[in-house]
Amino acid sequence: MLKHLLLFLIISLASLTNAQKITIYGDVVDVEGDPGVAVRYYFKNNPSKKFKTKVDGKFSIQLDLNEYDTLKFESVQFDPYAEFIGKRSHKRALKNNDSLYIKIVMPDRLQEIFTVRPTVPDTLFGTQEYSVEDYEFMPDGRMILLTYEKTLSKGAILRLLDDEFNEIDKQYVVGEAVELSKDYRGNVHLINEERIYLIKVIENDIRTYLENRDYYFKYIAPIIDTIGDNIYFSNYSDLYPAFDYFEFNLKDSTYKVMLQIEDTLMMELYRSEFKYVDVRTKLWAHQKQIETGIDKEIWVGATVFTNSVYYEPLYAPLFKIDGDSILVFDHYKNKMFKYTPNEGFVDSTRITYHLQSRKSGWEQPLLKDKTNGKVYAMFQKSGYTYLSEIDKYTGQVNKSFKLFFKYVDRIQIIDDQVFYIYRPFESIQKKYVYREKLN
After folding, report:
1. pTM for this model (two decimals)
2. CA-to-CA distance for 233 and 328, rounded, in angstroms?
3. Cα distance between residue 299 and residue 286, in whole Å
4. Half-sphere exposure (CA, 13 Å, Cβ side) for 244?
5. Are strands 318-321 and 325-330 parallel, antiparallel or unpaired?
6. Which pLDDT tens digit goes with each residue over 147-197?
């Protein structure tokens, strides 16, 4: 009789233990903290029993004690998310009255990339005598090339091509050439290590004019574009994690701040660097603050933190579109802002193409078609470049065009045509200029 009683007690205790459950509850939100509505959730081992989150993003589900499983979350709005409920989760639940709170941040769904079948690109210009480092189109449609035989530091040459891409003039570069740059007026400049030259084409001849370097970087380079009497520029510096966009009116000589761009997390790290530097650096920063009026934390951030692996310069470009409107892509607020001179900021929409860049392959910069104003996001996958047009109204990316070659350089888009420089890997070929059609 005693044996039967003990057996009964053991069975009863086992059944009670097996019947004991823990409650798993919490909130489902997106990357901006908004509730994830109608997100399906279920256990991997029991996929037939699914539930949905409420309008406030809350969820609740039960699991048998000492049973391990994976709680899965799915929605057409987001990429799937999985949370493993294991031994540690059970211990946390037992310490909290058999309940476990979890906050789920659903990853944004990456838009599917539909690739237009690549066509063999046109070789626009190339020769085995020298390589093309950079190129720009002049206002009359002819092309200026920056070329070199061995290195840019010695023997760089500017070459002028006609409408058929035949060389009609050349000029040797004095000093170490860096790149070509086109300003908001369409003028092309040659940037050297020490000097800057304005490039003009008079009939079939290249003419270069020495410019004031300080004037160029202070009054020309910061200007992005114009609309009527308004000039749009920024005070961007790659040594500071914030900058402003300005609108300047030529008629009344007034300007206003259009939009402030800031990476708040980067700014916090930037300023906190002052706490960790040595005493000598702190004394130096204090002295600089007295001399210039610029905060000591900024001096340390600009000289120390910007050289660390944690610092990334800001990237939030501004483009003029449709002749009288402006788009600003703020990658830190995850917003695309639309602005007009008469109405100010008239609209904003969320952008997500830049999130999870390691997974999507998103790369800077955004590229604007210089003829029709279309804006493209650039993605890199396995060495190939994908160009995806960004919808001006929704901020979403449309189907993508895959460039034919790997590891292309100096991409420009003009009238639905992509231009770039390319040299085959481990090839004796020099760097050529190629062209592909987007349509």
Report:
1. 0.77
2. 12
3. 9
4. 7
5. antiparallel
6. 999 888 888 999 999 988 999 999 999 889 999 999 999 999 999 999 999
